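User: I'm putting together notes for a lab meeting next week and I want to include a structural view of one of the chains we've been expressing. I don't have a solved structure, so I'd like a prediction I can at least talk through. The sequence is below, exactly as it appears in our construct file.
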Amino acid sequence: MLELDGVTSGYGAVTILQGVSLSVGEGEVVALLGPNGAGKTTTLRTISALLRPRAGRIRFNGQEITRAEPDAVVRLGLAHCPEERKVWPRMTVAENLELGAYTVSDRTAIRDRMEEVFTSFPVLRERRTEYAGRLSGGQQQMLAVGRALMSAPKLLLLDEPSLGLSPLLMQQVAGIIRAVHARGVSVLLVEQNISLALHLASRAYVLSSGRVVADSPTRALRADKTMLQAYLGG
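Assistant: Thanks for the context. Below is the predicted structure for the 234-residue chain, given as structure tokens.
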């Protein structure tokens, strides 16, 4: 579904990614792991066309998107749920969800998609008229994921969904990701909680200093104490 081939990317004069290659298959949950500063968020931003690759190629469902604009990437079926949720706090839950469907002109489709989000996350239905800034951290994460689902993605990029949450809310986030996957959406997951990521994903890539240093089934990675200690804090 998604293929990166030798992608180099960065910010201004600073190069972060150095020849990154990875793939996500249809129906997969794939984790992208590594220490702070490894290039995980840069990878997601490059895939979703918020950053332009300096070298390499990106393909999505067989179509070249290396030079695509962000809105075109969304229309193809790729959605990005950014780090720290970034909901609009002074807009209601329903308004945040509607903005997730900004590429959709069919009002019936928007209403149907919102109903699907409410079915997956019933608390959002209960609080649909409340300002997003009044939601708990876990509820805001549900809203951020729901907003991304409003574009009916085939692949969801999730950046640090458990960041800043309590252990209880982390389990709620795990449930969110499982619910998304159950809807047939593939997931590329960036997550600092290594245990959470390795139990949600079937495969994982490990980044270090902008390079892929491991590509492994998560079952094997959980047993690789040398890799865990060297790049993932044990």
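A couple of points you could mention at the meeting. The chain has ten helices and ten strands. Strands lie at 2-11, 14-24, 29-33, 55-60, 63-64, 78-81, 155-159, 186-190, 203-208, 211-217.

User: Perfect, that's what I needed.
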